[in-house]
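User: Sorry, what's this?
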Amino acid sequence: MKIPYSCGAMIKYIHTILDKKANNDLRSSDLTFSQITTLVLVAETPGKQLSLKKIQEALHIAQPTVTGIVARLKQKNMIEIKEDKADGRIKLVSITAKGEKQSKLAFASMKRTEAWLRAPLTDEEEKTFLVLLKKVCDGISKDE
């Protein structure tokens, strides 16, 4: 398949391939890439607990999407949802032991996929690639 060589098209292509690869790797665990990303985010947070709003902000996704992801993770006993004691309107998401285990497996899988993604690059190119990606991310996050 010939890829159009514009920044947006190439980024979209890489995202699509990574998303497909992640979902194929996760199929046996009955989890999606979005669910795993949420689990890893909560697992890597000090205290292993985040509000729905913080998850929404960290993952740059809409509130109804976060609600759906969290509901499915709760059904799978990977997370628990509690009300904030100080403000009952705030829902807090915490990871269960089952979710923690799955998060560790997924994180290892993500590292393997990242290595696969960067495999065509030399060490120097990899460093430059990461510096440039960070620079672009930092630049566009200012406009959000």
In short: The helical segments are 7-26, 33-43, 52-59, 63-75, 97-118, 123-141. The mean pLDDT is 89. The CA atoms of residues 42 and 48 lie 5 Å apart.
